[in-house]
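Example record

The entry below shows one chain as it appears in the dataset: sequence first, then structure tokens.
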Amino acid sequence: MASIAPIRLLHTAQDEPVPFFDWKALFAERADDYLRIIEQTCSSGGFILHAAVEEFERKLAAYVGAKHAIGLSDCTNAMLLGLRASGIRPGDEIILPSHAFIAAAQAIHFAGAVPVPVDLDERDGCLIDPVAAAAAITPRTRGIMAVHVNGRVCDMDALGALADRYGLEIYEDAAQALGASLDGRAAGTFGRWAAFSFYPSKTLGCFGDAGALVTDDDDVDEAVRAMRNHGAGADKRIAPDCGLWGTNSRLDNVHAAILLYKLGWYGDAIARRREIAARYEQAFDGIAELMLPPGPAADPRHFDIFQNYEVRCDARDALRAHLDERSIGTIVQWGGTALHHFRGLGFTQQLPRTDRFFETSLLLPMNHLLTDDQVDCVVDAVQEFFR
């Protein structure tokens, strides 16, 4: 494999658009290497569950600090299979933050359980409020799904204590948090299992859908490996008397090979995100009307990877329009829809803090592909708006 080159920052003209995410640049960044990997993988004839998947699983488990990693088709199915492997029963309730992507609730639903969304804790950025989680516990509660939003680990001390007190399990939706940690402990190692996403715009993104589940639980590992491949056992063959219902949720070898390569310089990508976050914090810290997320050096307990940079502002819509006029892309996370807003799915919760958050929050451009000039464009435009 070729030696790892440092991330290259190609400067752009000040008036060039700043997309929220430059999809084409994700491939162009190291196109020669990617084409070589694709050619090598495809010409080998190993397309499904071959060496690249196994090696990526080993390297991912080592990176996270987990005993097992299982490559899967996507993060949604990783959560679904993790829940099924945990013995979830119909009617079980699983508490999760309403400030989360619908995939977590979908996985809970299709595992046969009931998702119970709760409010967020504004003091910790935008993560689940342990007090709200405690208030939602009933005799039917089976577990808590910690969702590490924007690359910041939840208050796992409080959630862990809550789980211990009531005999609950902890599961982690770590789709946005590969490499994040709390007190030196990595996201993905606090619960019975954790799920990661490798969607293209994630911090470790491939060129399609992909995901993984990590766990220290041998039984969960064995069950998920079988379920991802139609119930096949360790020899990857379906036994004459298959013991569990499986599905097709395998990680493709091409994606695994790309991810394996990118994991080799993943630390550089995270460092660049944290550098941009520090630049934003320095530039915006004096703007009273703008509420910022915790910065890279705000709390030595947290190592945040900044999957997103989510700010809050009462004039959110006007700010977004101002940035759009200057060809700077922004996003309101998950379309501005919290889980409890999906009334058609049966949610009835009233969560005022989450409602307020979605009325005022905005994602600024944040990824390692941004050039210094593009970051300056975002900074100048935001400062201009508040002047």
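Notes for this example: The chain is about 35% helix and 15% strand. The first strand starts at residue 68 and ends at 72.
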